[in-house]
Amino acid sequence: MKIAYIDLSKDKAVINDVPRELEAYIGGKGIATKLLFNIPPNIDAYHPENAIIFGIGPLNGIKLSGASRMTCVFKSPMTNGYGESQCGGFIAYEMRKTGIDFLFITGRAEKPVYLLVEDDDVEIKDASHLWNKDSYETEEILRKDEGGEVLSIGQAGENLVRFACINHRKGRQFGRCGGGAVMGSKNLKAVVFNGSKEIEVAYPDELDDFRDWLNELIKEKLQAIKKYGTANIMALVNEAGVLPTKYWQKGSFEGFENINAEAMQKYVKRSSSCYGCRVACGKVVKVDGIEVEVEYETLFSFGSLCYNDDLTSIAKANDLCDRYGMDTISAGNAIAFLMACSEKGEVDEINDEINFGDSEGILELLKKIAFREGIGNTLAEGVKRAAKVLNVSVEAVHVKGLEPPGYDPRGLYGVALGFVTSQRGACHMRSVIHRPNLVGTVDRTSPEGQAALLKDLEDLYCVVDSLVFCRFLCLPGIGMYWNDIAKLYRIVTGKEVGVEELKKIGERIFNLTREFNLREGVKDERLPSIFFKPIKHRNQEFVIKKENFERMFEEYRTLRGWK
Question: Which residues contact 533 (CB under 8 A, 6 or more apart)?
Fold first, then answer.
């Protein structure tokens, strides 16, 4: 494996072998996390010595469903701790062909630049002509000028919106934790990968057989997500009473039928797919001349959370976030937070007020956030910091500074625990435990069995993110599990690594993420207090009892061996 060390302050790039001792961390997330410890402790996320690390793993580049993912690791401007995100599309495939597996980027360029990563080479190039352009425009220009595949930031990243994301192919993002803002702080507008190297596997015939098996699994188990995309889960979440609504005040949405998967299907024009993938989970909708890929988390964040049942406005909000480069989960939470403040009469009635359900107001606020205008400048800091500036009584809902995704933990005990143990902040993807909770693998309103299940899934996905592979092919209960992953790892690399050893590696990587947070002063946190207050859904009431949460958390800490 090769790593390019790029110092933008010195306008210098050096390519070396990845240190042999890091190979024990597989690749992707594992190695990138270990590399992150090279930055000085306790620096600001926007300090030039902060690193943004792009990495791939041994599965990337092969033509197989799920094998086109890239990881990105950095110190997060949202949490001041461990930041990570993954991105699909074609970018990992193209990076693998360059022969460079990791980019370790530090420093701050004197003027806007982009990186051109070609076969065994990295060039730092002037991006002055790209600054102030949105991510769509930037990618179009660079694909024409350089070819290959592009990662870029929009104006939100340039303006250091703390939840700015990194964009790829108008629908794939490194979405969470503010990686786009870290790039913006470095005057790094884009990274272009253009490779031509051949990709080899240890046992190509066995890979053909594995591919056939995986394609059959997709046909049998993933038809719903293949047809509807991630929006498919919305019906289950709403029916369970855990669809966050009206800024975490309710667990189901009266306007659900106007924004669910069936409603969206009327506007879907085509499906989109990552390289070599048979699932094609991306659903591109067309409204008012705009074509944009819409996912469940965006339907929740600009829909139910904002009490907005206008699907057209949600698609437009999605398009603005993709263009400007903003995480839709954090952006929707920030706007819904302001709506809750307005409802209580705690914001400037003339300039800042926005009511729940104001679909046009959402679009105006997104522009203000991206360009840090007026109240948008405050919301661009995320809800944790915005609440302190506004000095309001409405609780800012976050864990470690990161706003939660679309699953109310009051009716999903595993999610409640997972929000706290996720080292990047409130997150569902580090464990995907919402799925076994929702389908009844464990009782979703009981602490029983949650800690052991969560630990196993967290360790599993640390390995998956180091390979780097897609969650949707490894969903709990219906996708690949430890034995399948060990088998695929051997087929591709020739390395015989047993399940027990993989589990140890996954645990080691997970503990590394916590070790980084502890180094940076980010400690294990508790849930926002709102989740210890009940919500009603039909004839049911959901609440997290503090004694049950503490019991789960203590059981989890014991399993982890944490003091």
Answer: 543
Among the listed residues 303, 62, 325, 302, the one whose alpha carbon sits nearest the alpha carbon of residue 190: 325
Q: Distance between CA atoms of 444 and 416, rounded to whole angstroms?
A: 10
Pick the CATH number of 409-560 from 3.30.1490.20, 3.30.1380.10, 1.50.10.10, 1.10.599.10: 1.10.599.10
What are the pLDDT digits (tens) for 439-470? 999 999 999 999 999 999 999 999 999 999 99
Q: Classify domain 233-390 at the CATH topology level.
A: 1.10.569
Q: Where are the domains of the chain?
A: 2-194, 233-390, 409-560
Q: What is the 3-state secondary structure (H, E, C) of 389-448?
A: HHCCCCCCCCECCECCCCCCHHHCHHHHHHHHHCCCCCCCCCCCCHHHHHHCCCCCCCCC
Query: Cβ(199)–Cβ(125) under 8 Å?
Result: no
Long-range contacts of 96-100 (CB under 8 A, 24+ apart): 96/56, 96/60, 96/61, 96/195, 96/197, 96/199, 97/61, 97/193, 97/195, 97/196, 97/197, 97/199, 98/193, 98/194, 98/195, 98/197, 99/2, 99/195, 99/197, 100/2, 100/3, 100/4, 100/15
Cα separation, 251 vs 272, whole angstroms: 31
Q: In this structure, are residues 218 and 65 in contact, taking their beta carbons and an 8 Å threshold?
A: yes
Full-model pTM: 0.98
Percentage of the chain exceeding pLDDT 70: 100
CA distances to 30, 33, 192 from 55, in Å: 10, 10, 14
DSSP H or E run through 340: helix 328-343
* Spatial separation of the C-alpha atoms in residues 97 and 39, rounded to whole Å: 28
> Tokens in use for 29?
């997330």
End-to-end, the C-alpha distance of the chain in Å comes to 36
> Which has the closest alpha carbon to 90: 171, 156, 190, 144?
171
Length of the chain: 563
The CATH architecture annotation of domain 2-194 reads: 4-Layer Sandwich (3.60)
Helix axes 413-421, 450-467, angle to 10 degrees: 50
Cα angle for residues 137, 371, 425 (degrees, 5° grid) = 95
Residues 399, 76: Cα–Cα separation, whole Å: 13
Instruction: Give me the pLDDT at residue 135, please.
Output: 98
Instruction: Give how far the C-alpha of residue 476 lies from the chain's centroid of Cα atoms, to the nearest Å.
Output: 18
Asked, colleague to colleague, whether 233-390 and 409-560 share their fold, the answer is: no
What are 231-265's pLDDT values in tens digits?
999 999 999 999 999 999 999 999 999 999 999 99
How far is 452 from 522, CA to CA, in rounded Å? 24
Query: How many other CB atoms are there within 10 angstroms of residue 68's CB atom?
Result: 30
Q: Coil, strand or helix: which one is 69? A: coil
